[in-house]
Automatic annotation (TrEMBL), chain A:
The encoding gene: RAB27A
Topology in the lipid bilayer: Lipid-anchor
GO biological process: antigen processing and presentation; blood coagulation; complement-dependent cytotoxicity; cytotoxic T cell degranulation; exosomal secretion; melanocyte differentiation; melanosome transport; multivesicular body organization
First-listed, main subcellular location of the protein, grouped into a coarse class: other
Name assigned to this protein: small monomeric GTPase
Catalytic activity: GTP + H2O = GDP + phosphate + H(+)
NCBIfam families according to UniProt: small_GTP
Keywords assigned by UniProt, alphabetized: Acetylation, Disulfide bond, Endosome, GTP-binding, Hydrolase, Lipoprotein, Membrane, Methylation, Nucleotide-binding, Prenylation
Pfam families in the cross-refs: Ras
Molecular function in Gene Ontology: G protein activity; GDP binding; GTP binding; myosin V binding
Family annotation (CDD domains): Rab27A
Family: Belongs to the small GTPase superfamily. Rab family.
PROSITE patterns named among the record's database cross-references: RAB (PS51419), RAS (PS51421), RHO (PS51420)
EC number: 3.6.5.2
TrEMBL record, chain B:
Name listed for the protein in its UniProt record: Synaptotagmin-like protein 2
Alphabetical list of InterPro entries matching this protein: C2_dom, C2_domain_sf, FYVE_2, Rab_BD, SYTL1-5_C2B
Positions with biased composition (Basic and acidic residues): 521-533
GO annotation, cellular component aspect: exocytic vesicle; plasma membrane
Bias-annotated ranges (Low complexity): 612-623
Residue intervals of the RabBD domain: 2-58
PROSITE patterns hit by this protein: C2, RABBD
Record Pfam families: C2 (PF00168), FYVE_2 (PF02318)
C2 domain boundaries: 648-773, 788-917
GO biological process, one term: intracellular protein transport
Biased composition (Polar residues): 192-218, 294-303, 315-328, 392-402, 424-436, 534-543, 561-572
GO molecular function: neurexin family protein binding; small GTPase binding
Residue ranges of the region described as Disordered: 142-328, 368-402, 420-442, 489-623
Amino acid sequence: MSDGDYDYLIKFLALGDSGVGKTSLLYQYTDGKFNSKFITTVGIDFREKRVVYRANGPDGISGRGQRIHLQLWDTAGQERFRSLTTAFFRDAMGFLLLFDLTNEQSFLNVRNWLSQLQTHAYCENPDIVLCGNKSDLEDQRTVKEEEAKELAEKYGIPYFETSAANGANVSKAVETLLDLIMKRMERNLGKDKYQQNFIRASALH
Amino acid sequence: MMIDLGFLTEEEQEAIMKVLQRDAELKRSEEERVRHLPTKINDDIQLKNMSGQWFYDAKSKRHKDKIHGADIIRASLRRKPATMSELSWNRSDKIKNSWVNNVNKEAVVTPELFGIQEQAEEGEAESSLSSNASTVTLDRLQERSTKAAVSPAKQRKNPFNDSILPDDDNLKSRESGSGIAGLSWTPHEDSLSPSKDSQSKTKSLNSGSEEPRQTPTEPSDESQKPTDQPPVPKARKVICKITDPKMQKDAALPKLAKRTNQVNGASTPPRGILKRSSSSSSTDSEVLRVNQKLDAQSKNGVPTSAILEGVAEKNSPTEVAEDNSQNSLEKLKQVRFSYNIGESEQLQSPPLHQGKEIREFDLLEFDDNNSVSNTGRSGAPGNEQSLAVKPSHSSSSALDSNVTGRDVLQENMLVLNSHDAEGSSLSVTETSQPEKSPSVELVTPTAFSSKILLNNMNVPTVDETSPNKSKPHLNPESELLKNAIDQPLPSAKTESPQVPRADLQQGSEEELNPVLMALKRSADRKMPSKSLEDISSATSNTGKVDIPREELVLSAEDVSTVPSKPDNQFSNPEKVKRLSKSVPAFLQEESDDRETDTASESSYSFGKVKKSPSSLTNLSSSSGMASLSSVSGSVMSIYSGDFGNVDVKGNIQFAIDYVEQLKELHVFICQCKDLAIADVKKQRSDPYVKSYLLPEKYKMGKRKTSVRKKTVNPVFNEILRYKIDKDLLKNQMLNLSVWHNDTFGRNSFLGEVEVDLGTWDWNDRVKKQMSWFPLKPRTPTAALELENRGEMKVALQYVPEPAGGKKISPTGEVHIWVKGCNDLPLLRGNRLNSFVKCTILPDTSRKSRQKTRSVAKTTNPVFNHTMVYDGFRPEDLKEACVELTVWDHNKLINHFLGGLRIGLGTGKSYGTEVDWMDSTLNETALWERMMKSPNTWVEDTLPLRMLMIAKLTE
């Protein structure tokens, strides 16, 4: 799968309570399939997908596509694997934080997950996308969209209501995260360039 | 960074390893890609982005290391004993790339670790052997360094090198805990290619050694393993100590060098996992330290190393030349010494003191040699082989070296104890373990003795020339002959006399059921580290036979601090039981360490917590036997305790001398009379003497004599030595304590004596003579008295109906906002890396534990970490207690700094009297404020205190 024929290796990690649909969402994203059977993830796993990212330039013209190799880490939501899964937090560039729209507790635990991320991620403010999953089960929903949005806003992270079952917003969520990462890199670029320029300028004087 | 993965089943581990394998493959290709990037991309920044360097830079900034989570896990998994399936799995891996190789290497390492651990156990129990164990590790480390020197390190162009390629490196470094890892790595890689084997044997040897070193970190994990897999442990006891004169010269120098390296490495901050992993591996770092100490002691050998590596710190070049001779001499001396002991114990005569070569010392050296050789061997075979080794058998490493074939290794694994032609190799590996007890070293099961000889033979050969290694193994007999010829007789002598003993001592223990043994081992393993600091995790072992099952479980899982008696003594199992019931009980693991370990609080004991009747979450305490070992402890620390409740009586006879020429303090432990009976049931005591220089300012660690079985009038005639400047002794107390060595690690304190060395008249002839001192009950350790533990700023909030509003139950949440601490005490010089752990009592389940990140380099850490606990009914608030404990996170070990118990302090919880409901007025006040004003943050800055035990007493 990974023959090195790509421009960027981007590593994401999905986290959230057990049973919220992390594995299913990733499966839906990478394979476009859904299996309603609940198979608990053993510790960790990952899936891969190759995508092309086109940044929208300021002028609306997209540049050359960047070939992205996505490594999507899937983590066990179960508490018993926690020490193991958190060890992987540090290796992800971005995070898909999932909760189950039909499970209030999983939503309440989002805060805890965020705090875990803050502790273990590669930096203090990593890029995160919040996903309220199982949006297809509208009749069982216990988490209101407003609540979730409010929370997401509070933390300044994008929020999507996704459905691994029907694929709603799944790609969008991942792509949004990818966009955040690419933007972050661009910022790095800009910053560095700025610094370089600055240095050159000062050298001239 | 090690993680306790003891809870994983074999299948799970396998599944995870497969994932890691895939990840490794991806990393490899990524690495390949990145290597070529520079040719395509000119823009540095663009390059940084495309290579992912931006990410790794950020990550390393934050985490101070570049370790991949995958590596951590892999390393953690490694430690576990391999099952057959794993082994086979490993094989398949071998085929894979260098990365894989690394993996293999790690596996190789494990065996040694085992050895170390075992040694450690025995060492504590029996004697200062632990030091030996440590030396072994040192040797390994040294070997690494040497290897590094030998083969040029690869150059990695890859920006990731640190992060990606580094996997291997990281692993290694982590494992080793020494900074050396990076260097050592490259050699491995070189050796990796199978084709190179013959050529690179020497290299491989080195590399092999490296691998083993890594293991040290793993101990905690391993400890877990043993429980899972009983078989492994048995094999280890064999030791081959014999060294040929040749060996000494040829190998000895390198070895010595290696040691020094290790030492150095120790001083350098380990990059790797070790650093961070508090839980698992306390051993490494500690081991290193120990080693250093040992080195100092064993200087004789060391000096050479200085030359070789330039480490010179400890050794002076001039000394080098002497080393060899000294070694041999020492051995000889040892022989004598042991001889004396065995035959006539009364040789107490002062002359012994003067002779440097105390049996311990000698043993140490022997061990070193052995270990070195062993490591070398193991390394030699080739990294790939090492994969098979993984399983953790010490023997396996040996096998690797000898056979080169994984198959062999596996066989060994299976056979464990069985000695076949290949068995010799096994024995070799085992040798490393010998460290535990002097007597033990020589012998394992009697059957081994022959093997031992073989081993010895092998060892030398290995060191000398890697290429021929295989041969020697094949023809053990020829080697034996060689040895006989080449070696000084003494070695042989020593072995024989000691052997019997070892058998006796160990034999009984070994006979015990495998599980117990495993536990024990695990405990032992940890021991080495303990000397410096204690590891609670080791404790799990404690509950070996006698302890009620419950306790075992407890210990295995969580460790929570439980109050113990002031004395720290868990008088008897029953009490312990009680404790556990009442709440979190702590089992202590090492009974004897009270002082040893972290100086900080001697009396703490860790235990697992059982569930309490509380309504709070009931998490299954599930852990079964398997988990026992796992305590690894991310969080635990240790409190050592004394399991016994023995009335102190009797006297001890000893003499103290400072040997100016050696700059060593010698404590000649002659004998004890009329000791208390520690094991009332069996009406016996198995005493040994342990020494400390207090306060442990100079981290000299402890020394121990061997254990005398079934006697209240033990005659030791052993010298406990400290390499220390005389000036430094002025403000030191010599603490000699007598302990009953319980088979299952539940040692009992039998009394102690403290001598103020500051007022000691070194020139007084009389004082150099044996004197009798009455044993006294334990005196409070300085650590306990640590008065200012700092304070914690914490805010609490009770949210009766969380916003989310479950419909189900009207339970609320308790939010605990740990803001920060001030004035934390420094237990480790000026280093401090603190974090806060939170548990809601009476629920001590692991699940309910939360902790903050750790903040380094400040006594005033700011955490701003909020923990949320739900399921609180208003009435629960009266019964629960928030236990916040502050820990100093050091590589493998966490030291307890202080804590708070915020609750009503009623002494009861849900109607049951509990020790932990002991909140101070301030703590209670805060809790009450929280209860009175829901949905409001209430805050206070509370003084941290010792959370102990005083109450266990009854």
